[in-house]
Design brief:
The chain has four helices and seven strands. The chain has helices at about 5-15, 25-30, 40-50, 105-115; strands at about 20, 30-35, 55-65, 65-75, 80-90, 95, 120. The chain has one domain (about 5-120): NADH:ubiquinone oxidoreductase Nqo5 subunit (Beta Polymerase, domain 2), CATH 3.30.460.80. With about 150 residues, it is of the alpha/beta class. Helix content is about 25%, strand content about 25%. The strands form two sheets. A five-stranded mixed β-sheet has the order 1-2-5-4-3.
Length: about 150
């Protein structure tokens, strides 16, 4: 059995087969994708790390009403990439993976800085890119930059 098939089966068992799909690696950039409920995120991430996957990145996209969080996990030998994603209402915290996977630390801090996503249980939730007193998140769709000196 290939790593892709094995991981597909494990994700299907953990999340239900309807939440997991195979993807065409050359066009999608990953082998598998799974929609993960926020309450299952830590368990699924732990399962993937136990299978030898590492976290490549965490990012988020503003989808107007919700934020879509994307977690990309990879394994090199044999090659397999897994995209986990979840949609959460803006302002709803999701569990931090930083204690389980230290590499998640800066990615989660960036998602907070740029989009306002809060990660519950994060060990160091300080801002990473913006000043500590920033009261905005520049990648949100409704963000309006203040006029610069030349525009005022």
């Amino acid at each position: 059995m290939s790593i892709v098939d094995d991981t597909l089966g494990a994700l299907g068992q953990a999340l239900g087969e309807q939440a997991v799909a195979a993807a065409e690696r050359p066009s999608a950039g990953y082998h598998l994708q799974a929609q993960v409920p926020a309450q299952e995120l830590e368990a699924v991430a732990a399962m993937l790390t136990q299978k030898g996957f590492f976290l490549e990145f965490v990012t988020a996209v503003d989808r107007a009403q919700d934020l879509e969080l994307v977690y990309m996990f990879s394994q090199w030998d044999p090659a397999c990439r897994v995209k986990l994603w979840l949609s959460v209402p803006k302002g709803q915290p999701v569990p931090s993976l930083a204690r389980l996977i230290p590499a998640a630390d800066w990615h989660e801090r960036e998602a907070f800085d740029m989009l306002g996503q809060v990660f519950s249980g994060h060990p160091d939730p300080r801002r990473i890119l913006l000043p500590e007193d920033a009261d905005f998140h520049p990648l949100l769709r409704d963000f309006q930059a203040a006029p610069g000196p030349a525009e005022a």
